[in-house]
Amino acid sequence: MKRFLSTSSGLSTKSFDVVIAGGGLVGASVALGLATDKLAAPLSVAIVDTSLPPAKEEVYDKPTLRTSTISLKSRKWMQGLGAWKDRHATAFGDMFVYDKNQGITFDAKQDELEHLGYVVENEILRNEMYKRLRELGGKEITGATVTEIDAGISEVDYISDPKHASLVLQDGKRLSAQLIVGAEGANSVTRRESEIGYWRHDYRQRAVVANVKTRDHSFTAWQRFLGKSGPVAMLPIKGGSISNVVWSTTPAEAKALTAMSDGEFLKELNLAFEEDWDGRVPPLAVEVVL
Questions:
Q1: Could you read off the pLDDT of 218-252 as tens digits, one per residue?
Q2: Which stretches make up the FAD-binding domain (predicted)?
């Protein structure tokens, strides 16, 4: 494990029980879990990120490109945290996965379920988590007290205090804690500074994402496997009137797809789903939504 002496000892240090490095969906979930847990009530928590959501009411009229598919159990958990609103997500009742020779359908009705899951835009879900965190901080603290810190992280110091670790921020300030949660994603400074090993594999694929308006509303999640190049998926958002496209393919084809005009891309997308084995195809994509 890396050890070093900090050169910023003269700057102020703030102490917390837990510091969460990274305020994306994972980091925000950890903070919200602590903030709503009665056993965590004595804890002080800091969540650190360079782009925290603004403290204002957002209007979600335009679709964004990054989405998550949420299971029923995950939805129930987020409802318990107070960060979930059904109106921000689109439920799907079935999922159809296929290639040109075979396929499989997952249907909620077969298991006597109302839905299989939900598709929600990451930005909306993250904003709702922070909205709930701020509500808890100002009114009804049932768990840990969470402080938001808008800053970048440069180092992790394990040696200056044997009982605490410290995050050294890019401005030289320190955050000391008994527990540091590394949730910054693929380029985690916490993981790098802690020398936590990992391995990576290049699948030689790239994901092209887009939002398209369809001729008819859809409440089905579609996934078509296109041989060696990879799968393409269409996931319903915005009440089923728009589909979020995630097209995994080779780097060369991804470059070609992103260079196409809207009309050319729509043609390729509809062709990708055209050939099937059971007569089922998703609604025709008619417009790229910016």
A1: 999 999 999 888 999 999 999 999 999 999 999 99
A2: 17-254
